[in-house]
Automatic annotation (TrEMBL):
The lineage of its organism: Bacteria, Bacillati, Actinomycetota, Actinomycetes, Micrococcales. Residues 469-490 are annotated as: Disordered. InterPro entries: FAD/NAD-bd_sf. It holds the Pfam family NAD_binding_8. SUPFAM superfamilies: FAD/NAD(P)-binding domain. This is Phytoene dehydrogenase-like protein. It comes from Janibacter alkaliphilus. Gene3D superfamilies: FAD/NAD(P)-binding domain. Residues 470-482 have a biased composition (Low complexity).
Length: 490
């Protein structure tokens, strides 16, 4: 029987384990932390009874995920729901834009820009059920739906600034700029619109849902499905070298640099160089709050929105992104606020609600984000501080200490540069294969990246199964894992 070791138990590591086990492989997952799950956890971080997502919070692509469907997670109780408004972007004095599930509903609230918004996203939403199949795969592939993907790609390949320049009102410009900011790259770069176009289209097609019971509920289902398939799990053990595991396959849910350390001399020189020069994104610093009666946003839509972007107008969003990518702390950082309880009321305790917030900061920024975040929220919601009953912070260093994949606080699995959008972690028709026989990379540093929880691991496992079928995917144990200080040195 073919055997496999999965190093790392984040959503991608577990997806790889489940996919392999479902194909008849005997799988063992090894996790360095004492708790499995990586960023897919929920806990009572502030007050008893308030359920906060620790990292992964919103799941706009879960309804379309082939992995979720093939793993039959709905049978285990997977349910998702959305707030009345998907996203709001306040600008002050009650003004601002809002993203509603309906394209037409969004357009009617954008005034003179309504028809432009509807013309831009209407056809993409109509195609999305088919195009998402191509979006959730490596960029370099033979498309299943070439015409729809071409329409999507024509817009996604533009700088985000080109999309906002086609809009006229400050509200509409800020609304798209805020969604594009999820890529954590300057708005003027080639293809910097891609993440914004994908997330906006997904929001219109199916919302920005949260998992009922918290993201940790999804983790529980993945662990249950893995156990049903006979997957073994070992926690509290860090793998340093391939020689520590004696299996036919090794799946690495790690950063590319960590993968290079583990694989050592078995990694081809070109791949080793690519893995070591892989760029990580700027960081996020997180603040969880227990808020009595919720945040008193001046903008009415923000009081009903699952996600609120507090980033100011398009120019402020652009300036904040420019600063963090250059290693500077913005004077007015971009802040994302999650009000998941509006979609999943069971996370609250009476009229006290869990609120999730983070701000973009330079990689490795060491400071406490509390005032950075609350000062920005106060601008759009005066009186918020008076309602805060408890807080819990997570700096970039604390994030990386808890999860080694979050380098410098990078929660998106690597910088969204043009090169890495097209070929991450390296240029290859099979980005999961490391070049070391039987060893595959399956983390969010591979396509389709962060936000499509589990898809990287699912696709990597399918690549491994295909390689086994052709006789090219099995390790030659005893010779493949020799690591040296030369290869593993920093």
């Amino acid at each position: 029987m073919t055997t496999a070791t999965v190093v790392g138990s984040g959503p991608n590591g577990l997806a790889a384990a489940i996919t392999l086990a479902d194909a008849g492989v005997r799988v063992r997952v090894i996790e360095a932390a004492d708790r499995p799950g990586g960023g897919l956890k929920s806990s009572e971080l502030t007050l008893p009874g308030l359920l906060h997502d620790e990292c992964a919070a919103f799941h706009p692509l879960v309804p379309w995920s082939p992995f979720v469907r093939e793993a039959r997670l709905a049978e285990l109780g997977l349910r998702w729901s959305s707030a009345p408004v998907e996203l709001a972007h306040p600008l002050g004095d009650g003004r601002g834009g809002a993203l509603h599930r309906s394209v037409a509903g969004t357009a009617t609230r954008l005034g003179e820009d309504g028809h432009r918004w509807e013309r831009t996203f209407g056809h993409l939403v109509e195609d999305f059920d088919h195009v998402v199949e191509d979006i959730l795969r490596p960029v370099l592939h033979l498309p299943a739906h070439p015409l729809g993907l071409a329409r999507f790609g024509a817009l996604a390949a533009l700088p985000a600034r080109a999309v906002t320049s086609a809009l006229r009102s400050p509200s509409a410009r800020a609304l798209f700029a805020g969604v594009a900011a999820h890529a954590l790259r300057p708005l003027g770069g080639p293809a910097s619109a891609s993440v914004g176009v994908a997330l906006t289209t997904a929001a219109h097609a199916g919302g920005w849902p949260v998992i009922e019971g918290g993201s940790g509920a999804l983790l529980d289902m993945l662990l249950r499905r893995a156990a049903d398939l006979g997957v073994e799990l070992e926690t509290g053990r860090r793998v340093h070298d391939l020689d520590e595991v004696e299996t036919d396959l090794v799946m690495l849910d790690t950063t590319p640099a960590t993968a290079a350390d583990i694989i050592g001399d078995a990694l081809p020189a070109g791949t080793a160089r690519a893995y070591r020069r892989f760029q990580h994104a700027p960081g996020v610093a997180k603040l969880d709050l227990a808020v009595e009666r919720g945040i008193p946003w001046l903008q009415a839509d923000a009081r009903r929105a699952g996600t609120v972007h507090v980033g100011g107008d398009e120019r402020e969003v652009a300036a904040a992104l420019r600063d963090v990518t250059r290693g500077r702390l913005p004077a007015r950082p971009f802040v994302l606020v999650g009000q998941q309880y509006l979609a999943d009321p069971g996370r609250s305790r009476g009229d006290v609600h869990p609120v999730y917030a983070y701000c973009h900061v330079p990689s490795g920024y060491p400071g406490d984000p509390t005032d950075l975040i609350l000062d920005r929220i106060e601008e759009a919601a005066p009186g918020t501080r008076e309602r805060v009953l408890a807080t819990r912070t997570r700096t970039t260093a604390e994030a990386q200490l808890a999860n080694a994949n979050l380098v410098g606080g990078d929660v998106i699995g690597g910088a969204s540069t043009t090169r890495q959008l097209v070929g991450r972690p390296r240029w290859s028709l099979d980005p999961y294969a490391t070049g070391a026989p039987g060893v595959f990379l399956c983390s969010a540093s591979t396509p389709p990246g962060a936000g499509a929880h589990g898809m990287c691991g699912y696709l990597a496992a399918r690549s491994a199964v295909d390689a086994l079928a052709t006789g090219t995917g099995q390790r030659s144990r005893g010779t493949q894992g020799r690591s040296t200080r030369r290869n593993r040195g920093r």
